[in-house]
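We keep the chain:
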Amino acid sequence: MLVWLLLLKQKPAMSIKVGAQRGITLIEQIVFILIISVGVVALVSTLNPMILASADPMRTKQMVAIAEGLLNEIMHQPFTWCDPDDPSASIAQSYGDCTWPQNTGTFTPGENRLAGTFDNVDDYGGYIMANVTDVLGGNAMNGYTASVAIARAGNALGLADNTAALSVTVTVTFGAENFFLTGYRFRYAPRY
C-alpha cells in the first residue's frame, strides 16, 4: 500500500503536447509543381530527338531492301560476249563474233526495264528510277530514288581481261541519305 501511495504522489510523466496538425501551403504546392514541371520538360526534350529519329532504322532498312532487290535483279541477267538478242549469242567467243556486243563501255540503257526488255547486265548501266517500283511498275515507294553505275572491273579483281568482270553499284537515295551496294558480275561466255 505504501508503494501505491508513493505512486499517487508522484507527478505524472511529462506528456508531449501535440499541436494542431497542418497540411502543405499553397506556396509549397506551387514550388513542387514547378520543380516537377522542369524535370518533365527536361525529360521530354531529351526523348523528343530520339522519338523523331526512331523512323530512321525503317528508312535505312527500306533503302537496303531496294538496293538488294535491284542488285539481285541485275546480277541474274546474262553477261556474255553478245546481247542475248544477238543471233550469235550462244556461240560467240569474243566481242568480234557479235552483231551487238555487250560491255562496249557505253553502259547506256537501250531497252525498257518496266517492259521487261532489260535482258542483260549492260542494259542497267546508267539506269535511274525515281519513286522506286517493282519490276512490273507497281508498289511505288515515293521519295526513294535508285541509280545504277556499271564499270569494268576485271583488272581490279586480278583478271588479265578487264572486260571479264563488271562492278555494279546500286545507289538508293531518300532525301539527304544515301545507301550504296556493290556487286561483281563475271562473264561466263558463251554461257549465261
Notes: The CA atoms of residues 19 and 25 lie 17 Å apart. Strands lie at 128-132, 141-152, 165-174, 177-186. Helices lie at 2-9, 26-52, 56-75. Confidence is low (pLDDT under 50) at residues 2-6, 105-109.
